[in-house]
Amino acid sequence: MTTMTGNQTAAVLFDLDGTLIDTAPDFSAVLHQLCADQGVTPPSDNAILATVSSGARALVELAFGLRPDAQGFDALFQTLLNQYMDQLQNTRSVLFADMDVLLGQLEASGIAWGVVTNKPERFSIPLMQRLDLAHRCSILICPDHVSQTKPHPEPLLLACDRLGCDPAHSIYVGDHPRDIEAGNAAGMRTIAAAYGYLPPFPAISEWGADHISPSVADIALYLSNHLIFSAQKGLTHEN
Asked: Which cofactor does it need (predicted)?
């Protein structure tokens, strides 16, 4: 990967579910409700966590053992999406521990941060608004804005283009192999969020990330060592 040198302003981009925001409580709530409505025993919390980053279709497949082309799948999928939209009105989702501090440090240092997600805009925007993040986020790229989603680099390249940032001087943080694949393909530095909703395989050490962070605090430490700031505005690590 390209090493960041010089005085260029860097951007830090995050995946949404399982990286920036702990959205599992909302997905767990709606999946449990859907299973109850259908008279099906819900999956374990660990199974849900390992599947959330793969999207709503994967959650339906997990809970009901149906392939996407199976009869009845689409009805369950649409019901789950409708229930999730309702759930966002009283969301249980929260920023991961220390994330608000990290975002504040980036903002104070004049470093743009944004979100690049495979979550559709109709869900991403309300969620960001509910958590009072929409006005702080410099860029939000959803599947609605591109022709190809992650692991293709198009969404990340679009984000960097709109921010006026060189991908080689930017970082992408994600909790799924496709995040790291997309970031690497875009020529960015990549951080694998080991605290997120990791799939059961492949092992995170095999994703090809430049760095693996067990916590948001570790991301802050990594950024303080690798981002280029002005002398007046350095990113400091706080526990």
From this structure: Mg(2+)
117 and 198 together in one domain: yes
| Token representation of residue 218 | 């570790």
Both tokens of residue 99?
Answer: 């994330």
Please tell me whether residues 180 and 141 are part of one structural domain. yes
Query: What average pLDDT does range 15-32 have in this prediction?
Result: 97
- 16 and 58 share a domain? no
Q: What is the pTM of this model?
A: 0.91
**Cα first-last separation, the chain:** 29
- Given the residues 15, 26, 166, 210, select the one marked as catalytic: 15
Size of the chain, expressed as the number of residues it contains: 239
Q: How many domains does the chain have?
A: 2
User: Are 75 and 164 part of one and the same domain?
Assistant: no
Half-sphere exposure of residue 236: CA atoms within 13 angstroms, side-chain side: 6
Q: Is 26 a catalytic residue?
A: no
Pairing of strands 94-95, 21-22: antiparallel
Query: What's the pLDDT band for 236 if we cut at 50, 70, 90?
Result: very low
User: For the range 75-78, what are the long-range contacts, defined as Cβ-Cβ under 8 Å and sequence gap of 24 or more?
Assistant: 76/34, 76/38
Domain of residue 207, residue span:
11-22+94-226
26/112 Cα distance (integer angstroms): 28
The answer to whether residue 17 is catalytic is yes
CA atoms within 13 A on the CB side of 119: 26
Do residues 4 and 189 touch, judged by C-beta distance below 8 A? yes
